[in-house]
Design goal:
Blueprint lengths: L1 H28 L6 H8 L18 H11 L11 H12 L10 H10 L6 H17 L2 H11 L1 E3 L2 E2 L1 H9 L8 H9 L14 H16 L7 H4 L1
Helix pairs in contact: 1-6, 3-9, 3-10, 5-6, 5-7, 9-10
């Protein structure tokens, strides 16, 4: 009886894994119509209307890609979805009493925003890492960045850089400047508290830091692989 139950559970897990792989393969070519975070917003009863408009990476200013890489994941072009060196560094800082900081890559954030939920539990972080490894194995970096910039949350009910660009600056994402791109990237850690429209002194400090990192990464040349 126990063996049958274990066998059934194993087949269930295999089926679930195959379903996830098939979905990741499908989303390499088909734009996701929504995400778990957007669905969560719709069912939360929020008074803020959900705004999101899909655009291709070619319709997004390349400064935005560089700004989010400078802010969130500077090894994005080189890791395989999970940056193990960043995780080791974060753990070392935690042991040294500097507090626990996030080490999620852009790929992990894409997996979380698309399939999972917010939180810091071990189960969710493990699922996030596994999904990120699968996504990085199946999607090119260009596709990861495109999906990320179209589903990331930039404010209450504002998902994707095109909706954020119109909401905060009144222009399409293709026309965003370096500073505007840095302002959007600066609020990503906590878009419900931080504002790109009316930046606090803290946000302006982050903008200045991000601009400095963008220059230090050698500018747009750093992400030439996304646009070749």
């Amino acid at each position: 009886m126990i063996q049958k139950s274990l066998r059934a559970l194993a087949w269930l897990l295999v089926g679930f894994l195959l379903l996830i792989i098939a979905l990741i393969v499908l989303l390499r070519f088909v734009n996701p119509p929504t995400s778990t975070f957007m669905l969560g917003h719709l069912f939360s009863g929020s008074s803020h209307e959900l705004r999101q408009e899909w655009v291709s990476l070619d319709e997004i200013s390349p400064w935005v890609s560089l700004a989010v890489v400078a802010s969130e994941d500077q090894r994005f072009p080189y890791h395989q979805g999970v940056d193990f060196s960043a995780i080791r560094k974060a753990l070392a800082e935690y042991r040294a009493g500097q507090g626990l900081r996030g080490a999620s890559t852009i790929t992990q954030q894409t997996a979380k925003n698309l399939f999972l939920w917010n939180g810091r539990s071990f189960v969710r972080k493990s699922l996030e890492a596994g999904l990120a490894l699968g996504i990085d194995a199946i999607w090119p970096k260009r596709r990861i960045m495109e999906v990320y910039l179209n589903i990331a949350e930039f404010g209450h009910g504002i998902y994707g850089v095109e909706a954020a660009s119109w909401a905060f600056f009144g222009i399409p994402a293709s026309r965003l400047s370096q500073t505007q791109a840095a302002r959007l990237a600066a609020v990503l850690p906590n878009p419900k508290v931080l504002s790109a429209a009316s930046p606090s002194s803290y946000v302006w400090e982050r903008v200045a830091w991000i601009r400095g990192q963008m220059a230090q990464l050698s500018g747009l040349h750093y992400l030439r692989g996304l646009y070749n």
